[in-house]
Amino acid sequence: MKLGKFEVHVLSDGPFTLDGGQVFGVVPKPLWEKRIAADARNRVHWGLTCLLVQGDGRNIVIETGIGDKFDPKRADIYGVDHASTSLLSGLADCGVRPEDVDVVINTHLHFDHCGWNTRREGEKLVPTFPRARYFVQRGEWEHAMCPTERDRASYIEEFFAPTERQTEFLNGDAEILPDVSVELLPGHTRHMQGVRIGHGREAVYFISDLVPTTLHLQPPWIMSFDLYPLETLANKKRLLPQLAAEGAWVVFPHDASVPGARLEERNGAFHTASLFTERN
To answer: What does the alpha-carbon distance between residue 275 and residue 280 come to, in Å, rounded to a whole number?
Structure first.
């Protein structure tokens, strides 16, 4: 999709699964299973949406999916499947090699958002994108290196730590490049960030796990993973009306059917309007 000076490509790191109770929190199963089916293990199928943004002679990758470093047991638990697509194959389809990437932005460092930050090179783990500068909030990095018992399973150090020398640590809202900025969206984690590309109706806003799927547009539909659910609720109520009024494209990181859309507000509730596709 061409938006102002940027070309924006929606890429996928393939499907994966999570427990339905975890992803819908306090919402009872009789409500959420009307919207999305669970498998025999109570897992729902989610996407791993990443973005390639090209402009001003740069290749910018937003999120790097789940990667390829899970052992067979964990890959089965999470239903990881790269048979049809992965972030790297998607980049290759766009003519972009790992060494062509200039900037990588991680909204946070849970394993399903930074998996391709690194890759195996023989016995070593090295940055997948050797020329890139990686951008993440300093507070997120520090927490990821020393998580609590409650969220320790969400962070896998080998997925991100080998990029430290290439990482720019941010301290709050920041402009990374002209018309490419981040803002803090605490709730899911204390230092999660959203990413804005462009302005107004020519903007793309990667909303990360504040709204992981279109089902989570309803303010009280909040994941049990969220460390600060009341802050998630407050940020939804603040940000969604703003994005709807602007007409910005909103990208959802885990919606397997609707990776992105413009939003509209009807009777106090938010719905998807036109959908984000490469043809828009």
So the answer is: 8
